[in-house]
Write a structure and sequence with these properties.
Neurolysin, domain 3; 2 domains; two-stranded antiparallel sheet; 4 strands
Length: about 575
């Protein structure tokens, strides 16, 4: 995922203002010149502060130390205050209300700046409180370790390993419940934070923070709801069929009746990833492999050099470090970094390809663009690239190209590898429904029974039953809800775009028929297409305009359905 923690603290990482430059021109001044002067001062102000802040954030994620987190909070307040300036916003609003400017690039800057400023035109004290609350929760979650009844401390990697490999029902239950206890630690803090975020949104004229977040990221809430309803209809039957296969397999694996399967039997903390129900063991292909070298070599084959990103990154486990993964562009000037906790297995190969997908997107955004437009067209467009590349970890052709599997081995694993990918996609699709609808409900009414809301959604969309008598804040154990609010639905939009881009590449560049068989390996034309049509424009265009320019049509779900649902 991209900028997982930063998204919460920096509302618009490359978009801020500067104090006191909103009334420098008289009323009869030229709007274009006035805006240009504003932007110049904005850039001069934001660049050094941005780098200082992101550096502090990066250090805190690596160390987990009290001192580093305190610095993040301090600098987060300093950073945010820059673009709470009321005079600056008044100037932007005046220009926008007057019809903006005729120059399309400058007008796009105006839109991006206006959206970022608008969400911060609230009481500075509330924003300070929000930053403090976010920092407190992030520290608790990043440094939490599940503890067993014997007192053993488990990292998230160790929790995942036990849940995915053990067949001891008692151990599975104990491990799953131990991890979920982090929800008890942070749930009250998260609810308080949600209410504070809602206060800010209502101050700005929105119903709640969820609605505000979507609209200020140029998404219509009604359109997103419609899309998720359509995707629900599209995936419901296919998932139910695969869920039956999953249940049958797990029932035999753990020697329990299907009706008695519990969440800890689904080989993960949230059932967001596919259980290993097929005979193909993808992990064995990555055992003892150098995942960093594989990632570096693959992107190089597309004409994308990531060695500089690797050198600045932190890719392996250490005490106190954030246990998850993210990519961050530190300065919009090329200092792109990635945090991972790499182990030689399929999950982390997928994650490395995913995060470096974010990395190449950030790196190859044109530096000729204005500073404020050096971001992806949308958060989900960078997720699309990350997901398109992440999928390759289970692609038989890619495994041959990069791992050297024989033709015989490739033929043997191709169909099953795709079955695994399809299973992953449909499992994730239903999990995305839970996350999107829970967050929507959370911000609509944070005082409702959130434990019930969570499990009602899990049962409806994932077809997984709540443990009898359980009434714990299991929802709060998902870090995204606290640190990346109203973001998760973009992952699924990203999956749709990943399928759309893959279809375009396979049909128009590779001239192939097999939609699911391409690895893009060693094809500089594919790399050139992505760098020129998707990466370089940054946020020069709205996301749908960029997608139409790159693929010939606006975002659609038909290629996702073609790839993963049809034929089931």
């Amino acid at each position: 995922m991209k900028n997982i923690y930063l998204i919460a603290l920096i509302v618009a990482i490359a978009v801020t203002g500067m104090t006191g430059c909103g009334n420098k021109k008289d009323k009869g001044g030229d709007m274009k010149s006035e805006l240009q002067a504003f932007i110049q001062k904005y850039e001069d102000t934001i660049r050094p502060i941005m780098k200082e802040y992101t550096t502090a954030m990066w250090n805190s994620e690596i160390s987990g130390s009290e001192e580093d987190y305190a610095k993040v909070e301090e600098l987060g307040i300093k950073y945010t205050k820059i673009f709470t300036n009321k005079e600056d916003f008044a100037l932007l609003k005046k220009i926008k209300d007057a019809g903006g400017v005729k120059d399309s690039l400058l007008d796009r800057e105006l839109t991006v700046l206006f959206n970022a400023y608008q969400r911060n035109q609230v009481d500075e004290k509330k924003l300070e409180e929000i930053i403090g609350m976010e920092t407190k929760i992030a520290k608790k979650m990043n440094t939490y370790r599940a503890t067993t009844e014997k007192g053993d401390s488990l990292t998230d990697n160790e929790v995942e390993e036990i849940l995915s490999t053990s067949t001891d029902n008692k151990k599975l239950e104990e491990t799953w419940k131990a991890h979920k206890k982090v929800g008890q630690v942070v749930s009250a803090d998260i609810i308080a934070l949600v209410k504070k975020r809602n206060e800010v949104a209502k101050d700005l004229g929105y119903k709640n923070y969820h609605e505000m977040s979507l609209r200020l990221s140029e998404q219509d809430p009604a359109e997103i709801e419609k899309l998720f309803n359509e995707l629900d209809d599209l995936t419901r039957d296919g998932f139910a069929k695969l869920k039956g296969q999953i249940d049958s397999f797990l029932s035999k694996r753990y020697n329990v009746p299907i009706a008695e399967l519990k969440p800890w039997h689904f080989q993960g903390r949230f059932f967001q990833e596919a259980p290993k129900i097929y005979t193909l063991d993808l992990d064995k292909y990555y055992k003892d492999k150098d995942l960093v070298k594989l990632t570096t070599d693959y992107y190089a084959s597309l004409g994308m050099d990531v060695k500089d990103i690797v050198d600045r990154s932190d890719l392996f486990e250490k005490k106190g470090k954030n246990q998850h993964a993210f990519c961050i562009d530190m300065d919009n000037e090329g200092d792109v970094r990635i945090l991972c906790n790499v182990k030689p297995n399929y999950k982390w190969m997928n994650t490395m390809l995913h995060e470096f997908g974010h990395g190449v997107y950030d790196k190859y955004i044109s530096r000729d663009l204005p500073f404020a437009l050096r971001d992806p067209a949308h958060t989900f467009t960078t997720e699309a690239i990350a997901m398109m590349f992440g999928r390759l970890a289970s692609n038989a052709q890619w495994m041959q190209d990069m791992l050297g599997v024989s033709n015989e081995e490739k033929a043997k694993i191709k169909d099953e590898a795709f079955k695994y990918t399809r299973l992953e996609q449909l499992v994730f699709s239903r999990w995305s429904q839970v996350m999107y609808r829970f967050e929507k409900g959370l911000y609509e009414n944070p005082d409702q029974d959130l434990n019930k809301l969570w499990w009602d959604l899990v049962e409806k969309y994932q077809l997984m039953k709540k443990p009898e008598g359980r009434n714990e804040p299991d929802w709060a154990s998902k870090i995204h809800i606290a640190t990346s609010p109203c973001y998760y639905h973009n992952y699924h939009l990203g999956e749709l775009l990943a399928s759309q881009l893959n279809h375009y590449i396979v049909v128009n560049i590779l001239k192939q028929d097999d939609i699911n068989g391409a690895s893009y390996y060693n094809n500089k034309e594919v790399g050139k297409y992505l760098m020129e049509k998707v990466f370089a424009p940054g946020s020069k265009y709205t996301w749908n305009e960029m997608i139409k320019r790159a693929t010939g049509e606006e975002l659609t779900a038909k290629y996702y359905a073609e790839q993963f649902v049809e034929g089931l």
